[in-house]
Structures are given as structure tokens and as C-alpha cells.
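Re: your question about Type II toxin-antitoxin system HicA family toxin

S., sorry for the slow reply, the queue was backed up all week. Below is exactly what I fed in.
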Amino acid sequence: MTSIDKILAKMKRQPRGITFKEAERVLIIYYGYTLVRSRGSHLYFRNDAGDLIMVITYVNEILDRVGE
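Result:
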């Protein structure tokens, strides 16, 4: 099991228990999102398909968007 798989399993098991860095790692390294804007506590990531996701601590939304 890779570290990304471990983070995804942790996100499913305990969505509020992951750190922002873990969520960012899943989005950027594994799913190819890039940080496009940062406003206060809201960070916006976009992938090549144009899918935009706002991250505060919305782990469930990340899982829904990446199909996990």
C-alpha cells in the first residue's frame, strides 16, 4: 500500500483527522491538481479537465471528485 493509498484510506475512515498537507498531497501529486488561487483560508485547486475544488477541510468533497 502506497502512502497515497494510506492517506485515502484515512480520509475515508476519519475525514476530519487528516491534515491539510495530506489533502494537498493527494490532490497535487496523485491526481494532478494545481493550486490556482489562495484567498484567506480558502485554497482553489484545478485539474487539467478544468474541475475546480475549494479546500478548507472538505475531505469528503475531495473523495467525491476523485472517485474514491
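The chain is about 45% helix and 20% strand. The longest strand covers residues 34-39.

Happy to talk it through on Thursday.
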